[in-house]
């Protein structure tokens, strides 16, 4: 008996008692939907957290924040270390930044702001994928990049006597419109005013710079980026003026050695691997050389482990619901064997192989399981869609909170669907196994007399 004929026989028999088939498939579908929806919460939270990690940090990024010297202890990263990093295989770029040891005042058209200033090596920043909202990367020593919020932080310069600080900000704590800069700063020349203390009196120097690029908008609405990125040549000019490392305006007691001009120390060093697979190997090489290295991949590994345990747990709980539903399948198949005893007797009488009879009933239980899995999956996808659609509304209406951008509570990947269908099939086949075996043992004569 061919598989096609067996399947046709199963379809004909299941249509004889549609109400019983419907209830059995319904129970299976509910169990599958329960399993998928329950597990989808773990998958959704996992996806949201990983997406959140990826949003601000590149997966191929490795932060190197110093070196452990066996003799002297912690050592900052210097040019010698950068040269070693460049020899490591699969390294795409090495960005290094140094913070200016003062917050210069940037002046443009009678507006000014004190901004955090960093020295960046722009060729490597380009390789690493530094993103701009507009403009271009600096090509000359006097060209700079400013943060996305830089122009918003510019305040109209006023004399101390005429400045009314109480009226400078509105009720939301933002600078009032009449005091903010309205023009376009791209292509404009700004003056960076640095200072040093001479006999406790400030002495200033203005360095003209051209804004050629504006950094990408921060991923969070509440984040403000007013940083300024200058070249190493500008840093050298500042250090020449102050006579101290990093442009320190004054040297405090105990900092004399650090303040001396000498070999460059970097505050932020990031190594970018050519691919995700190389991150782990590069990190291992750095750790073997006593560097303090960290990458988001390390954090992801721990998060993945936690969520994989959580996923396995909720899938196990959902499987219990399927096992409960399998009782209905077992009862359905047992009744089917009883009702079809004459048919089984006829099949045996005409020479049907017991294995064929067994396969027919296993095929029927699998058919019921597949129907339940199909409709259960549709319901689960529908519930997942509705939850993600209405969750932000519920949070806003009931709790007066906004859901994080891109957040999803439930997520059903194809792998979860495959796992759920697979578990459903295994459970339903086992449910039909005993009745199928019983069908092979039906006595032909008794079956013909309907005595089973």
TrEMBL record:
Protein topology in the membrane: Multi-pass membrane protein
Main location class: membrane
TM ranges: 21-45, 305-330, 367-391, 411-433
Organism expressing this protein natively: Lederbergia graminis
Keywords: Cell membrane, Membrane, Transmembrane, Transmembrane helix
UniProt protein name: ABC transporter permease
InterPro entries from the UniProt entry: ABC3_permease_C (IPR003838), MacB_PCD (IPR025857), Macrolide_Exporter_MacB (IPR050250)
PANTHER family registered for this protein in UniProt: ABC TRANSPORTER PERMEASE YTRF, MEMBRANE COMPONENT OF TRANSPORTER-RELATED
Entry annotated with the keyword Mitochondrion: no
Compartments (UniProt record): Cell membrane
Family: Belongs to the ABC-4 integral membrane protein family.
Keyword Thylakoid among UniProt keywords: no
All residue ranges annotated as the ABC3 transporter permease C-terminal domain in the record: 315-442
Domain MacB-like periplasmic core: 22-288
């Amino acid at each position: 008996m061919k598989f096609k004929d067996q399947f046709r026989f199963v379809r004909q028999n299941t249509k004889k008692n549609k109400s019983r088939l419907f209830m059995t498939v319904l129970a299976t579908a509910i169990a599958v939907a329960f399993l998928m929806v329950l597990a989808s919460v773990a998958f959704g939270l996992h996806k949201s957290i990983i997406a959140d990690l990826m949003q601000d940090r590149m997966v191929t990024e490795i932060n190197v924040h110093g070196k452990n010297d066996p003799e002297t202890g912690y050592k900052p990263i210097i040019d010698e270390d950068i040269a070693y990093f460049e020899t490591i295989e699969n390294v795409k770029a090495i960005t290094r930044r140094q913070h200016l040891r003062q917050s210069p005042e940037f002046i443009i058209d009678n507006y000014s702001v004190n901004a955090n200033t960093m020295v960046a090596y722009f060729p490597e920043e380009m390789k690493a994928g530094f993103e701009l909202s507009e403009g271009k990367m600096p090509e000359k020593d006097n060209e700079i990049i400013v943060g996305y919020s830089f122009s918003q932080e510019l305040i109209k310069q006023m004399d101390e006597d005429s400045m009314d600080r109480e009226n400078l900000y509105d009720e939301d704590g933002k600078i009032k419109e009449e005091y903010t800069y309205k023009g376009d700063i791209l292509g404009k020349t700004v003056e960076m005013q640095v200072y040093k203390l001479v006999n406790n009196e400030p002495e200033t120097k203005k360095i003209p710079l051209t804004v050629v690029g504006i950094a990408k908008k921060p991923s969070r609405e509440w984040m403000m980026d007013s940083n300024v990125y200058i070249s190493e040549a500008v840093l050298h000019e500042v250090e020449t003026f102050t006579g101290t490392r990093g442009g320190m305006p004054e040297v405090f007691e105990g900092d004399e050695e650090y303040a001396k001009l000498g070999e460059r120390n970097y505050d932020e060093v990031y190594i970018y691997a050519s691919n995700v697979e190389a991150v782990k190997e590069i990190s291992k090489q750095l750790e073997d050389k006593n560097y303090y290295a960290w990458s988001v991949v390390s954090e992801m590994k721990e998060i993945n482990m936690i969520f994989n345990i959580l996923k396995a747990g909720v899938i196990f709980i959902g499987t219990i619901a399927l096992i409960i539903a399998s009782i209905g399948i077992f009862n359905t198949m047992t009744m089917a064997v009883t009702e079809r005893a004459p048919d089984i007797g006829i099949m045996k009488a005409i020479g049907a192989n017991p294995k064929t009879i067994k396969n027919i009933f296993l095929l029927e239980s699998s058919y019921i399981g597949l129907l339940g899995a199909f409709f259960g999956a549709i319901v689960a996808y529908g519930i997942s869609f509705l939850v993600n659609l209405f969750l932000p509304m519920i949070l806003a209406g009931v709790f007066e909170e906004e859901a994080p951008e891109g957040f999803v509570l439930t997520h059903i990947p194809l792998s979860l669907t495959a796992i759920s269908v697979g578990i459903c099939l295994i459970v339903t086949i086992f449910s039909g196994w005993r009745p199928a075996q019983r069908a092979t043992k039906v006595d032909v004569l008794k079956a013909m007399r309907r005595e089973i």
